[in-house]
Amino acid sequence: MLTRSAKRLLGRTLPRYHNEAPLKPAHLSSILYLQRSNTPLNGDCSGLPKGISKKESFCGHRMHSTTGFRVAEPLQLGMTEMVPDLVPLPSDIRYDDLVITTSKRLQAKPRLDATTLKFGAVYTDHMLQVSWKDGLGWTAPSIDPLGPISLHPCAQVLHYAVECFEGMKVYKGKDGQLRLFRPEMNMDRLARSAARLTLPKFDKVELLECIKELVRVERDWVPDAEGFSVYIRPTMIGTHPFLGVGPTREAMLYVILSPVGPYFPSGLKPIKLYVETENVRAFSGGVGNYKIGGNYAPTILPQLRGSHLGCSQVLFVMQDGKSKGGLVGESGSMNIFFLIRQEGESGELELVTPPLDGLILPGVTRDTVLKLARGFGDMKVSERPLHFDEVERASESGRLLEVFGTGTACMIQPVVGLVMKDSEITVPFDGDAAKHWLAKAPGTAALPNSSSDEPLSLCGRLSRALLDVQYGHVDSEWSVVIEP
Ligand code: COI
């Protein structure tokens, strides 16, 4: 097995994958000299210079290594002796250290069918993983066949929910290119969530490069139909076996991939939301603005209650003592948007979403929708507190025009009903108008002030503009192409 940096530094074509031809001992000793981090090499250690024991060397440990060393002196190509003085230095995630072991048993790819390709039910053949220990830093990242991970029963994640995650997607365009969408936002948010839980820092650029490599390994899994993609789930967990509640000393970061169709089985069809006023998702000073598993588990029971009333998700509305209806928050795993026509003569359109005040997840799609809608130039776009009373009043006077949720998983999800225990607000949704916008030529949906003579469907217009970027119909600084 060779690390990518060793291959590069040796300057010759060497086997890329673990499963291919093994290294000769002569290569191995050169490579050990070139190790710049605590990257352990598995396998044959027969090329080690005298005086370096197997335990001190980089051999034999990959995950959970206790031997984290950097070579103390700068290394040069062609050195013939191992630098004897090894000092421990915490190391970061490095793409160059990535080791790939491919699976010998590849699954058949699923059919592109929204009913069979349920969100998050199918996984690709490989995963990316990398471990961290306090004082030693990160081990070499590796791509391995997807499989169970081994955890001590006292691992912090299992007791105190020391876990954060991300949701990203890779899309295949008609040109066959694979594209990520604003992935640096996911890396930034993962770093913020991790810091909140005392999980370790990591090099965001290097992690993203490793994720791209995982996508390259799994490129045949990426569906080439609009609306389908591969969902990317980076996850970081506290693995330290310690029942005391304290800072993380050991962690693991892994990334799995899942080919997906629409998040809600109803697909592009609108859904209803259950207005949840008893349970809260987030509170002032809490962690609602971080993407951590602990924010999601408590939403499942309210969601189940809502499902008995025909709702696919809940809308959290929190009593704040300032209004009868309470403050609109998030909708389950989505940010929420309301298109309201303002009272008075101007009748101005206003797109409203709750502000990032610590209670709301800073969604990548949320931010994109705000930027797109501001670019449309024909409506006011507000991030402001919204009380449910205002939604009710707008509905009563026919001024509530659209409601939709946003998220990486669901993209843009139209809502047709806000269901309470004993009443329901019906929200308009014009399916034909949405189809009109979805059929627009690439790039035209995002043009400023283009909606004056066209049927109103902000959901449709935003979806088209977003799909145009994600599937590469238009060039955009938000698209990150994964080079083959
Ligand atoms: C996403 O939209 O990426 C999410 O994280 C939603 C997920 C909890 C299903």
Automatic annotation (TrEMBL):
Superkingdom: Eukaryota
Record's keyword annotation contains Zinc: no
EC number from the UniProt entry: 2.6.1.42
GO biological process per UniProt: amino acid biosynthetic process; branched-chain amino acid biosynthetic process
A molecular function (GO) term: branched-chain-amino-acid transaminase activity
InterPro entries: Aminotrans_IV (IPR001544), Aminotransferase-like (IPR036038), B_amino_transII (IPR005786), BCAT-like_C (IPR043132), BCAT-like_N (IPR043131), BCAT_family (IPR033939)
One Pfam family named in its UniProt record: Aminotran_4
Cofactor: pyridoxal 5'-phosphate
GTP-binding recorded as keyword: no
Protein keywords: Amino-acid biosynthesis, Aminotransferase, Branched-chain amino acid biosynthesis, Pyridoxal phosphate, Transferase
Family in the record: Belongs to the class-IV pyridoxal-phosphate-dependent aminotransferase family.
The name this protein goes by in its record: branched-chain-amino-acid transaminase
Species this protein is from: Ceratodon purpureus
